[in-house]
Design a protein that fits this description.
The complex is a heterodimer of chains A (about 525) and B (about 375). Chain A has about 525 residues and is of the alpha/beta class. Chain A has 21 helices and 19 strands. Chain A is globular, with a radius of gyration of 24 Å. Classes of the chains: A alpha/beta (about 525), B mainly alpha (about 375). Chain A: Probably part of an ABC transporter complex. Responsible for energy coupling to the transport system.
Chain lengths: ~525, ~375
């Protein structure tokens, strides 16, 4: 269905090609998963499938890309619209109309599909993706999962043979991600659509993949293979695979269910062991909310939240999209007005503190990291961060070197990949070393390597007496780094306790290792490895 | 009877019908300065809006237009008080300190005596403008401009898309600006500069437009436009000239700025040009339309109700019926029978327009 033949893509003005000598085929009806580090060229590869590269982006494409027998060098993306459906990273950015039904019909209108056929296909798609209840709703009023499903539906109504998705679940909470993946599963199984999808969150998708396309970036060659084979040696792997490798299971299980069936022996071996968790050295109180109420117009974002954050803690803030996580973080830096109650950060009232003093008390990496970046090159950005936060020259660059070693210092911050841009924003805020550090969804678009480096840095900061609060949907990251978990629902704090207590028993928030080894209280592969060490 | 002709079967009325009705009500308001009639027109539009608006975000715009109308009246009255002369009457209400002006501004007075006649005249004039604004607001609340653009003729499709994209981006820019200003605090900066405010917002907007363009390209936008460039340009030019002609004609007819034959001629020529251009343009467009809004009996009735209201006022004005314009500012406004009946006809859409589907009922069934 899709055939890449010695494809090399070079963007205008770039010294190195973004993709080098790529050859692979994806047969009809397969779900192919594209993996690789951030900025390794996954998006370029996906966009080459429908001709956006090079027709839309510019640059040169050497070699040949065939999709359903059509050569993309001869067809513009619009001429391939009936064969390839494309879903971008941010569904909101690609919406043309303002209600769900109109959005579903848009591609068909452009293609000139007959009205009665259109009507039928829209109804079918609404049912297929479970959108019938929201058919008349404005797109802006949808939840993240509903938006993503609408975007998929909009690409599907023109009945393309190929569906291309760029990180469809990275911004979604676990439940919404499940919905989207279930919908994709149906497309592949029932309708025989060929799906090509890039995703960092392997733990969510690897079990559904028929084929893995690894884009290592740089000069290394792109390679393909079966998921179970590739996972044996892959440098990045989800916890279920790492546990399988540790226990020496063969064939390597890719889903929690398979792993659970293989783990009977491991569970009895670990039966009496308990994970050793170093106690967090809890210090003075750095963040505090008492009966905090925040509302936007007639929407109440937070209703009566009280909490306390102490030095040495890493607190994970979890909950559905729109539960009030971002609002809580923003209230702690004084960006949103507080209706009643108080929010204090490191002993200061953030609403009444001058910005240059506030950054010495609390730092926030916002959801849109690009908002923090002004300079024309990465090096300039680092230099201006050093002077903003009055730290020795070079501090920010050193931090960036640790988080993302391969960022080009003379590049424009906007040209970085989403993950790299986040690393830069993180480095900018971290170089002020504020006592209370807040991170709003820091793992969106990060690969496993960057996540591991982020975990190391957060642990270091906590050990040095900082308090860290991160809002995230990434349960594996929470299991690795958090000492405490708070769950928000509909603006209220519904649980607040130690990580193991809160997430282990929850069906939505439990990490893979906890699901495989339940009822044993293990959360991460590291804890299991250590317990096995002690036992032998 | 066909389903679309039912008056009580829930469906959304054609946005064009709402806009025509609202414009007719505005025309009616433009014929009178009688406060009784103006308030009646406002009440009629307000009642129809509250009876037939949806719960979509844009449906709340009527209140915003009401506030804008109050502002217009306020500005008008304050300015009149400052610039008041005795030309309208002699009932002095109070005296403001007069500011002496240089010789070249002779004839203009700032401050001084303020007469009741001047204030009341300003109130009525401002009221007329405010009511016309509220009519536009009513159209906005009943049918979003986007839906109206959707039912544009095929030849105007590209222009419509450009408008829709602009309508989405304007509010987005405001949100972006707010977010970027908040983020500046996080860098410890107090002072705003072009680089730290406008640049991120503009870059963000540019990024989004590029993304949207990529998405539209991937979804087949512009796939069917295979007409030669010259023909496309010609069609667009004809459409624009035609619309200009229509605009000129309507303006002239309503304001008596031009002689009747000339105004009518401009209107006719405009309509002819526009229709011809659209007929030519339609041939090259092979896109189809999903669930186009039907134009059936309820639409005709709604437009007719508006037309009766506007017609009654325009005829009354043309025949010099008493009570449309007041004899003097301080008289008690009369209640002329024909215009009142005409305006009340404008209430009909509250009944003849089909009700909207209510989400609550849907859940029950």
């Amino acid at each position: 269905m899709i055939e890449f033949d010695q494809v090399t893509v070079t963007y205008d003005g770039a010294r190195e090609p973004a993709l080098r000598d790529v050859s692979f085929t994806v047969p009809e009806g397969e779900l192919a998963l594209v993996i690789g580090r951030t900025g390794s060229g996954k998006s370029t590869l996906l966009r080459a499938i429908n001709g956006l590269v090079p027709h839309f982006t510019g640059g040169t494409l050497a070699g040949r890309v065939l999709v359903a027998g059509r050569d993309t060098s001869e067809c513009r993306p619009r001429d391939l619209a009936d064969v390839v459906g494309m879903v971008g990273q941010d569904p909101m950015a690609g919406f043309v109309t303002d209600t769900v039904e109109d959005e579903l019909a848009y591609s068909m209108e452009s293609l000139g599909v007959a009205p009665d056929v259109m009507r039928r296909r829209v109804e079918e798609t609404l049912d297929l993706l479970g959108l019938a209840d929201v058919r008349d709703r404005a797109l802006t009023s949808l939840s993240g999962g509903q938006r993503q499903r609408t975007a998929i539906g909009a690409a599907l109504t023109s009945h393309p043979a190929v569906l291309v998705l760029d990180e469809p679940t990275s911004a979604l909470d676990p439940q919404a991600a499940e919905e989207v993946l279930a919908a994709l599963q149906r497309l592949v199984h029932d309708l025989g659509v060929t799906v090509v999808m890039a995703e960092h969150r392997l733990e969510r998708v690897i079990q559904y993949a028929d084929r893995v396309i690894e884009v290592p970036g740089g000069a290394a060659a792109v390679s393909t293979g079966l998921p179970a084979e590739r996972m044996v040696t892959a440098p990045v792997a989800p916890p279920v695979v790492e546990l399988g490798r540790l226990a020496g299971w063969s064939p390597l299980p890719l889903s929690v269910r398979d792993a659970r069936r293989a783990a009977v022996a491991l569970r009895s071996q670990l039966d009496s062991a308990a994970p050793a968790r170093p106690l967090a050295a809890i210090g003075e109180e750095l963040g505090r909310c008492t009966d905090l109420v925040v509302s936007y117009g007639d929407v109440t974002a937070l209703r009566g939240v009280s909490l306390s954050i102490k030095a040495g803690e890493v607190v994970a803030l979890m909950g559905r999209n729109g539960a009030g996580k971002s609002t809580l973080l923003n209230a702690l830096v004084g960006i949103v007005p507080v209706r009643s109650g108080t929010a204090m950060a490191a002993g200061t009232d953030p609403r009444r503190t001058k910005p240059n003093q506030l950054v010495k008390a609390v730092g926030l990496v916002p959801q849109e990291p690009a908002d923090l970046l002004y300079a024309a090159t990465v090096a300039d950005e680092c230099a201006s961060a050093d002077s903003d936060f009055k730290v020795p020259a070079g501090s920010c660059r050193a931090l960036l070197g640790r988080l993302a070693p391969d960022v080009a210092l003379d590049g424009h911050p906007r040209d970085l990949s989403e993950g790299q841009r986040l690393c830069l924003a993180l480095a900018v805020v971290l170089c002020g070393a504020p006592p209370l550090l807040l991170l709003d969804e820091p793992t969106r678009g990060l690969d496993y390597g960057a996540k591991r480096r982020l975990v190391a840095i957060l642990r270091e900061l906590a050990a040095a007496g900082h308090a860290v609060v991160l809002s995230t949907h990434d349960v594996e990251m929470v299991a690795e780094v958090a000492t405490r978990v708070m769950v928000l629902a509909d603006g209220e704090l519904v649980s607040d306790g130690e990580t193991a207590e809160v997430i282990a028993g929850s069906p939505a928030f439990a990490p893979q290792v906890a699901k495989i080894l339940a009822p044993l209280p293990f959360l991460t592969v590291g804890e299991v490895a250590e317990a096995l060490d002690r036992a032998s | 009877m066909r389903a679309v002709n039912h008056l009580t079967l829930p469906r959304a009325l054609h946005p064009g019908a709402w806009w025509l009705w609202a414009l007719c009500m505005a025309v009616a308001a433009s014929r009178t300065r009688n406060p009784v009639l103006l308030i009646l027109i406002l009440a009629v539009t307000g009642f129809v809006v509250s009876a037939r608006r949806s719960d979509a975000p844009w449906a709340h715009s009527f209140t915003a237009f009401l506030k804008l109308g109050l502002l217009v009246i306020g500005v008008r009255v304050v300015l009149q008080a400052l610039l008041s002369t005795r030309s309208q009457g002699n009932t002095v209400l109070f005296t403001l300190p007069e500011i002496p002006l240089p010789d070249w501004a002779a004839g203009v007075k700032l401050g001084g005596e303020v007469t009741a006649e001047a204030l009341v005249t300003a109130l009525y004039d401002g009221g007329q403008l405010a009511v016309m604004l509220c009519c536009v607001g009513a159209a906005n609340a009943l049918a979003s401009p986007r839906r109206l653009l959707k039912s544009l003729p095929g030849a105007l499709y590209e222009m419509g898309v450009a408008c829709v994209v602009a309508l989405t981006f304007a509010p987005q820019l405001v949100t972006d600006g707010r977010r970027v200003r908040a983020a500046r605090r996080l860098r410890g900066r107090t002072r705003a500069s072009f680089r730290t405010t406008a640049m991120p917002v503009l870059e963000g907007a540019l990024d989004r437009s590029v993304e949207l363009a990529a998405a539209m390209d991937s979804r087949g936008y512009g796939r069917t436009a295979q007409a030669p460039r010259a023909q496309r340009r010609l069609t667009a030019l004809c459409v624009l000239l035609g619309l200009l002609g229509i605009l000129l004609g309507v303006y002239a007819l309503l304001t008596d700025a031009m002689a009747f034959p000339f105004a009518a001629g401009a209107l006719a020529a405009g309509v002819l040009l526009a229709v011809a251009a659209m007929a030519v343009g339609r041939q090259r467009v092979s896109r189809t339309r999903y669930r186009p809004d039907p134009w059936a009996l309820p639409e005709w009735l709604v437009v007719a109700a508006g037309a009766v209201a506007a017609g009654a006022m325009v005829t009354a004005a043309a025949h010099g019926v008493n009570g449309l314009l007041l004899a003097g500012p301080l008289v008690v406004p009369p209640v002329p029978a024909l215009p009142v009946v005409g305006v009340l006809t404008g209430l009909a859409p509250a009944v003849v327009a089909p009700p909207l589907k209510s989400p609550l009922k849907k859940a029950v069934s």
